[in-house]
Write a structure and sequence with these properties.
This protein is mostly helical and 86 residues long. Helix content is 34%, strand content 7%. Strands 1-2 form a two-stranded antiparallel sheet. The longest helix is centred in the first third of the chain and has 15 residues. The two termini are 26 Å apart.
């Protein structure tokens, strides 16, 4: 569950991004692995008190980053629930 600080940073970022505020333009490649997944990158906040400062990561690198953060903090890893076919 996101904290109020995380939600606030997301709202500020989303508003600026959709209004085309530079430098929030999505780059051509992931900042971690340089894969060219333009249009599929995710914005990552290292510091939620700076909502317009983000790193652009592909989904895979973003998930790995958060998993490493959870592990370093001694938090349990998140279990993904498998969806059942309807």
């Amino acid at each position: 569950m996101p904290t109020p600080e995380q939600l606030n940073a997301y709202r500020i970022f989303r508003s600026a991004y959709w209004h085309g505020k530079p430098p929030l333009r999505e780059p051509e490649s992931c900042e971690a692995c340089q894969s060219t997944t333009a249009g599929k990158l995710q914005a990552h906040h290292d510091d939620y008190s700076k909502p317009l400062e983000v790193r652009w990561l592909c989904r895979s690198c973003h998930q790995r980053h958060h998993a490493a953060e959870r592990k370093a903090a001694g938090l349990p890893m998140r279990n993904r629930k498998k969806r059942r076919a309807a």
